[in-house]
Each structure stands twice: as C-alpha cells, then as structure tokens.
Specification:
- The protein is of the alpha/beta class.
- The chain has a single domain, classed as Alpha/Beta hydrolase fold, catalytic domain (Rossmann fold), CATH 3.40.50.1820.
- It is 49% helix and 14% strand.
- It has 13 helices and eight strands.
- Helix 12 links the parallel strand 7 and strand 8.
- Helix 4 crosses helix 5 and helix 5 packs across helix 11.
- The termini are far apart.
Length: 326
C-alpha cells in the first residue's frame, strides 16, 4: 500500500468517525429533549442500586402492572386500564428496568427472574402485599417469574398477549443486534434511532392490527422516548432474551399455583393466540382463557372490561389452587 493510498484511507476513516460522533451528539441531544418534553409522571424508588420509576393511583387491594417490550408504565394509562382499575384498587405500574425512566445497569443481564426479584423488593419497600399482577407481552414473562419465585407473595396473574413457548423468531435476531457490545453501542447512537423513526410506525401498526393505532397510545408512548439509545438497549436485550427466557420458564410451569387468567387477541401478529395462550391454558391448571375476536397484540386498549373483570375476580377470590377459575 503506497503512502498516498494509506493517507486516503486514514482520511476516509477519520471522516466517517467524525460523522458518527456528530450523529451521536445529535441523537443524545434529541433523547434528552424528549425526556424534557415528556417528563416522568410518577415517583422514583431505589432498590439494590437501581432507580425505578413507577406510577401509582387509587386505594384498595393491590395491583401491579408490567408493560411489554419497547413501551413503558404509561402504556397502561393510555389504554385506560390504569384509571379503570384505580377506582377500586391501589394500582402501581412500574417502568421495568431500562424503560421509561427506570435504570438498567449494564453490569448485569436482566432476564425475567432478575427483574421479578428486583420488583418484588420494590413492592416490599412500597408496602404492596399480595398483588394481582397484570403483565402484557414481555411483561407476562416477568409476571410468571414473580409467581414462580415468590408464590406466596402473588395473589394471582392476569396475562395479556403473552409469549410462553420458544418458537422460531427471525425478528428476534434482527432486533437484538443493538444489544451486541461495542457494535450495538455505536448503532444505538447512530443508525438505530434513524432506522427506528422509519420502522416504528409500521411496527406499532403491526401490534395493533387489525385495529387502528389509538391516539392515546401515541400520547402515552411517544416515539421519541422509545428511540432513546438507553431504551433501545433494553428493547434489544429483551428481544435477544425472549426465546431463552420462555424456554427457561416453560420447564417450571408445573410449579405454578397462582390462579391465572389469560386474555389474548385472536388476530395477534406478535404472539399467536393459539400457539401461546391456548397451549398454556391446556398445559397449566388453574387457568382461564379469553380469546377475543378482532383484536391484536395490544388487547388491553380494546378489552378494558375483560381486564378489569379478571383483576376484580382474582382480588375477591380466596387464595386456593387446583381449581380452574370460571
């Protein structure tokens, strides 16, 4: 390689690096601007060195809400479920680690079991006793981990649009790339937010299909917050963890003793209702299943009555196992 060629290569590399630095600075500025535009609506608690953000409302029997991948606690507010439940319950919706305004330390992995332990300690600090836990999508894995690892502390589960069995998911490979060390760091501060602005509207439509995307969702889960580099890391890590997490929990489904109510959309394009919720209902005693025609993955936006009724029933029922709820 001649000196001229080498110099040209160095100049090109330096130019690319400079461009990436500029893009990273712009991405960070936009992320901080989004946080200023959409400030936290709830409170903070620090547990084991992790700062968690949560929204709390109402009084009565406790209910804990756990959102899915890519969203945040306010997703339940946008759906109307949080306010509906707060009429007769004390409702606490957590930003799971890395989402919304909760921390997600990089020095550890965050499978459902670790998140469940952290959230249970948060419940202890907040004097939340024997809650009914409502999980949506990825949040159902955390809810199941809570019931498996802390069976005496959970009154029951309401699981919405859950992913319960490992399946072939090409999308997992694609969306988990930003979690790769170094390469992922560069992507999250450069190309991922740009691609995200192009892909997010399509992805959100897929979650809501066959229904339109409600304006309430766009207000509760702004795209600008979803595309912050630190939240992209959480979403990418959980995309990569999803299949192994379901495989790990599946081996323990026989240990479940909490009453469980399953709600799914018949037209779910993210977690197939029959393959996941239907199979889970057949495999696990003490469960009931409601599959709602004409609804997709974001079932809680259109089936508030069913969600509230399920929570009410579990809140009132005595803690017994072995019988399938009506």
């Amino acid at each position: 390689m001649t000196r001229e060629v080498l110099l040209a290569v160095v100049i090109v590399v330096a130019a690319i690096a400079a461009i990436l630095v500029v893009i990273a600075l712009i991405v960070r500025k936009l992320a901080l601007r989004a946080e200023a535009q959409y400030p936290p609506a709830g409170r903070f608690i620090e547990v084991d060195g992790v700062r968690l953000h949560y929204v709390e409302k109402g009084k009565g029997p406790a209910v804990v809400l756990l959102h899915g991948n890519g969203t945040r606690a306010e997703d339940f507010g946008g759906s109307g479920v949080l306010d509906r439940l707060a009429v007769h319950h004390r409702v606490v919706a957590f930003d799971r680690p890395g989402y919304g305004f909760s921390d997600r330390p990089k020095n550890r992995t965050w499978p459902p079991q670790r998140q469940a332990d952290l959230l249970m300690r948060a419940c202890d600090r907040l004097d939340i006793e024997q809650p009914v836990v409502v999980g949506h999508s990825w949040g159902t894995l955390v809810a199941l981990a809570l019931a498996l690892d802390h069976p005496q502390r959970v009154r029951g589960l309401v699981l919405l649009s859950g992913y319960y069995y490992p399946t072939m998911r090409p999308d997992v490979v694609i969306f988990s790339v930003p979690a790769i060390p170094v390469v992922g760091d560069v992507m999250r501060y450069t190309v991922s937010p740009i691609l995200g602005r192009l892909l997010t509207p399509w992805l959100v439509r897929q979650m809501f299909q066959p229904r339109p995307v409600p304006a309430a969702f766009r207000a509760a889960v702004p795209t600008a917050l979803m595309l912050r580099p630190w939240q992209l890391r959480a979403a990418a890590e959980e995309a990569g963890l999803m299949v192994p997490a379901a495989a790990s929990l599946r081996r323990r489904y026989g240990e479940l003793r909490s009453p469980i109510r399953l709600i799914a959309g018949a037209d779910d394009r993210v977690a197939h209702a029959e393959r996941h919720s239907g199979q889970f209902h057949r495999d696990v005693p003490n469960t009931s299943l409601r599959v709602i025609p004409g609804l997709g993955h974001m079932v809680h936006y259109f089936a508030q009555d069913e969600v509230v009724a399920a929570v009410d029933a579990l809140s009132r029922a005595p803690r017994e196992s072995g019988q399938r709820p009506a």
